[in-house]
Amino acid sequence: MAKVSIAAYVYGRVQGVGFRFATQHQATGLGLTGYAKNLEDGSVEVVACGEQEKVDQLLAWLKQGGPKHARVDRVLSEPAAPGHYTDFKIKY
């Protein structure tokens, strides 16, 4: 299957609630690579690479609100250049 990469920007109460850790757990379980990173504007950037179906599953999870203590107001996503990631990391 062809690999795809997306960059998603998640807005709402998504910092300080375990959002990156939960996203890493979800993405790793789906076999995806990439990263989750807090941005200065209070959002979280998620780059995910893998099979289209798995990337879509992660994107759906993000849009459904992520972990229980988070509040997702909106998710914007766009295709991203394929990265050379070996796993899914939390970036600081």
Automatic annotation (TrEMBL):
EC category: hydrolase
Active site: R20, N38
EC number: 3.6.1.7
Chain ranges passing through the membrane: none
Gene Ontology terms for molecular function: acylphosphatase activity
Highest taxon of the lineage: Bacteria
InterPro entries, per database record: Acylphosphatase, Acylphosphatase-like_dom, Acylphosphatase-like_dom_sf, Acylphosphatase_bac, Acylphosphatase_CS
Catalysis: reaction(s): an acyl phosphate + H2O = a carboxylate + phosphate + H(+)
All residue ranges annotated as the Acylphosphatase-like domain in the record: 5-92
Alphabetic keyword roster: Hydrolase
Sequence similarity: Belongs to the acylphosphatase family.
Protein name: Acylphosphatase
UniProt organism field: Rahnella contaminans
